[in-house]
Design a protein that fits this description.
The chain is an alpha+beta fold. The protein folds into three domains: 129 residues, OB fold (Dihydrolipoamide Acetyltransferase, E2P) (Beta Barrel); 81 residues, Dihydrolipoamide Transferase (Irregular); 208 residues, 2-Layer Sandwich (Chloramphenicol Acetyltransferase). The protein is built from eight helices and 21 strands. Helix 6 crosses helix 7 and helix 6 packs across helix 8. The termini are far apart.
């Protein structure tokens, strides 16, 4: 039976095998981890669900393969493959493992190997097989795309994959000099060689783009080029919020060791405040969907988390229905798994808005880039003590922070964005109203 590259999300087209837990010839039992796959967002261990022998490994550690490609073959207990190995194009089936065995018309079809529903492939039916060059050399789809982005002539390369196939690492190792070379990730501007020519080679080291950084670069460029951003900024007094947070943390129940069961951060309150603001201004709780706008009943808030090589935005679903302590516990758990690249696609895809907080780094204010298809993202700066004028004309010092709302003008116009930011400010400055 064929082991296929799973799809870890609707927008994931390929995966990288970072580790094989089994070697060719090893026995396999249901539940044994076969290999670890890594995409630009997550890493996941893929288990077997039937017994047999791992008779062939087609995609080695460090290699990338498209969704639906055969990465290995499991044979019966004698090592004979249930499905014969083929180099023909692969079309993704309805489950990750289990292309039926081919053979005589009288032979019963092999039982398909099925994984958990999480790994179900739901991509449209299309050919994922390698393209063939003149002379019989094949090229994987990923290698072909990377070569096109880098301006590399495939006819001049020798493949290092099985049967001389050109794979992604061949493109990454290929020289990219010449007038046709283009920047990685399809970014406009000078080529790498043009930029390198400006510097002494001894003054720098080259850091190749990994999958996450390549994806982040492409998505942010697309966002800035295709989304008509505009920005709204407000200064918000947070003295009452800080007092409420201190009281809540002081009243937190203790565990058996005498430690508090929770410790709320300001960001936990801000997530709930944004969720409630979207409920108060429902027209802003929306995303752009090509030729229409989608408006949501729930406030699903994405929270930007910095990870090695980039960032990811896990989603707090229906945040308007959750207590601040529940949001805090969920956010801590999601952040830890984000940094370990253990999130499931359903935990970071979708959402109706996002929040990004750089206050812990001392950043006073900033404007964030919208994460498509969202129409808004709220950027939070550092709290500071500032002189303010009171209603009676007197002066005093107050704790303030600056919030900047980035808006997609196709969905949220100026007045609507101002209403959303005003609603957020109201919940933050009167935090008790966010708790009822």
């Amino acid at each position: 039976m064929n082991i296929l590259m799973p799809q870890l999300g609707e927008t994931v087209a390929e995966g990288k095998i970072t580790k094989w837990f089994k070697s060719a010839g090893d026995p396999v039992q249901p539940g044994d981890n076969l290999f670890e796959i890594e995409t630009d967002k997550v890493s996941m261990e893929v288990p077997a669900t039937e017994a047999g022998v791992l008779s062939e490994i087609r995609v080695q550690e460090g290699e990338v393969a498209p969704v639906g490609a055969i990465v290995g073959v499991i044979g019966d207990t004698t090592g004979a493959a249930v499905a014969p190995a083929k180099s023909a194009p692969v079309t993704p089936p309805a489950s990750i493992c289990g292309a039926p065995a081919t053979g005589s018309a009288d032979a019963p079809p092999a039982r398909p190997l099925k994984l958990e529903p999480f790994f179900e492939v739901r991509t449209p039916q299309r050919n994922f097989g390698p393209a063939r060059l003149a002379g019989g050399v094949t090229v994987t789809p990923l290698a072909r795309r990377l070569a096109a982005e880098a301006g590399i002539d495939l006819s001049h390369l020798r493949g290092s994959g099985p049967h001389g196939r050109i794979v992604a690492r061949d493109i990454e190792n290929a020289p990219q000099s010449g007038p046709s070379a283009r920047p990685a990730a399809g970014l406009p501007g000078p080529t790498a060689d043009q930029i390198k020519s400006l510097y002494d080679p001894a003054s720098y080291e080259e850091v190749p783009l990994d999958g996450m950084r390549r994806t982040v670069a492409a998505r942010l460029l697309q966002a800035k080029q295709t989304i008509p951003h505009f920005y709204l900024t407000a200064d918000i007094e947070i003295d009452r919020l800080k007092e409420l947070r201190a009281d809540a943390n002081a009243a937190a129940p203790q565990d058996r060791d005498g430690n508090p069961t929770f410790k709320l951060s300001l960001n936990d309150f801000l997530i709930r405040a944004l969720a409630l603001a979207l409920q108060r201004v429902p027209a802003a709780n929306a995303v752009w969907a090509g030729d229409r706008i989608l408006r949501f009943a729930r406030s699903d808030i994405g929270v930007a988390v910095a990870v090695d090589g980039g960032l990811i935005t896990p989603i707090i679903r229906a945040a308007e229905t959750k207590s601040v302590s529940a949001i805090s516990a969920e956010m801590k758990e999601l952040s830890a798994r984000s940094r370990a690249k253990k999130l499931k696609p359903a935990e970071y895809q979708g959402g109706s808005a996002a929040i990004s907080n750089l206050g812990m780094y001392g950043v006073r204010e900033f404007a964030a880039i919208i994460n498509p298809p969202h129409a808004t993202i709220l950027a939070i700066g550092a709290a500071r003590r500032q002189a303010v004028e009171k209603e009676d004309g007197g002066g005093a010092f107050a704790s303030m922070l600056t919030a900047t709302l980035s808006c997609d003008h196709r969905v949220v116009d100026g007045a609507l964005g101002a209403q959303l930011l005003a609603a957020f400010k109201s919940y933050v400055e009167k935090p008790v109203s966010a708790l009822v």
